[in-house]
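I hope you will forgive my troubling you with a question about protein structure. The full record is reproduced below for your convenience:

——
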Amino acid sequence: MRTSIATVSLSGPLSEKLTAVAAAGFDGVEIFENDLLTAPLSPEEVRLRCADLGLRIELYQPFRDFEAVPADRLDRNLRRAERKFDVMERLGADLLLVCSSVAPEALDDDALAAEHLRLLAERAEEHGIRIAYEALAWGRHISTYDHAWRVVEMADHPALGTCLDSFHILSRGSDPAGIAEIPGEKIFFLQLADAPLMAMDVLRWSRHHRCFPGQGGFDVAGLVSTALRAGYRGPLSLEVFNDVFRQAGAATTAVDALRSLLLLGESAGLTSPPAPSVPTGFAFAELATTDSEPLRGMLGALGFSRTGRHTSKPVELWEQGEARILLNTGSADRRSGPALAAVGVETPDPGRAVRRAEAMLAPVVPRRRAARDAPLDAVAAPDATELFFCRTDAPDQPSWTRDFAAVPGDVVPADAVPGGVRRIDHIALTQPWHQYDEAALFYTCLLGLAADDSLDLADPYGLRRSRAVATQDGGVRVVLNIAPAPGPDDHRLQHIALATDDLLTTARRARDRGAALLPIPANYYDDLYARHALDAETLAAYTELGILHDRDEKGEFLHCYTATVGRVFFELVQRVDGYQGYGARNAPVRLAAQHAHQHTG
């Protein structure tokens, strides 16, 4: 599988883009004309730079508004094309992308368009160049791939073929099944992009909201599979216009881009990386802090007990039911207070999970390990959260929990009591503004999780985006959020949601033990009564404890929150029947309450 990316997909000057593309591991690159025009390097120097980096220049693009024009305009267009052919020869590029015309003077005449494209192909052939004709989704007269192919077929020249672009095809709702009717040798190039499903002008949608395959709502893998069955043998190339990507660092974006192609190649049967070792639950959540007392107090109030201290590191183990929290006082950032630094997932095959992570370009975290420490591998997520692959208490290997020794005076917890915490239900991580889509792809790609649709949540200071990824049975759920605007780390709140089968008892017991529960405005409960007509006793209990309520066709969801410590807070949740969501309806109320509590508390 050859991989390629258009330089327009990345930020920075052309030389930096080429370096990032090569470092990520791409085989080739599409040179976008504007990148060349603004570069201080000559075409010959760009050619040499690509050769030094091991990159093939797969395509030069775009050449616009050529075909089906009046005779005087055609002469000017041919002159323009000859100059571009000269540039391409200096670059060492042999394929030119020609977009269907959007010019007002373009004529609605397929025969004339075919005649002009044949003429262009004849001129290109003299330079050893081929023409890949692409239908823009907003083309003036030719806007679908099948229409573009009919014109190419009519022109009938060996140096003329078609370029298929997944965005232009899928954004219009076209059926990619027709690609099977195009001879594989006439599909000169395949450009790939995903996008969130949006009701928007297609030009604006394309210019601002494309994303890498697997990050949006299109069936890009299905389109690729159809093109491969038709006989396409060229590279899989990404062409993504995205405001966030063009502001983020080129190096990290390029890695994210290649990861998306690796996953796409796996879906299309082109590559065979180790299969995901789908996690079955959470092994632990690790909180990093320089001052453990506030978190110790919070965990104690929530019903956790300290069950051990690491034999070689400043880490404590706190447990309740199947939920485990680690307090690490050796690696915290003093500037932002307690933070969720690592997550352990129960993994059937940790070794395979690590091999897949490496194959999917996830960096393995180097660890300081004492001789007697259990083997435990981790990779770094895009936001630097460490993801550990665990098999707790597995009979065939040492368990990581054996690295913790009991502390004299600590009381080992008895069997679970009614109303206690049972397990970690989900974790929520607020991502850096430029890594939200990357994070979703990371977790789905490495762990085999499925992604829900992205949601917009109202915050008093703007809109937050939120997207959940989870296993099919809900054993592992991760909620990825992005704050309304870029800001310091202390604005990136994270939380751990703890599952209970009796929220009222659990919340009341936590409050009585000193946990600061987040107060919710009385107006919320007036509205809750109007929507669900809860009885007076239940409504009073919810109001007293700050419990929020949601309901869908599958069940109900009860949840409440603690006050925030540093960048971390806890959520207590009770799922009733088959409810699978996260109480998104209540997010604006919770966010407003947190802002109010922060300013008054």
About this structure: The first strand starts at residue 3 and ends at 6.
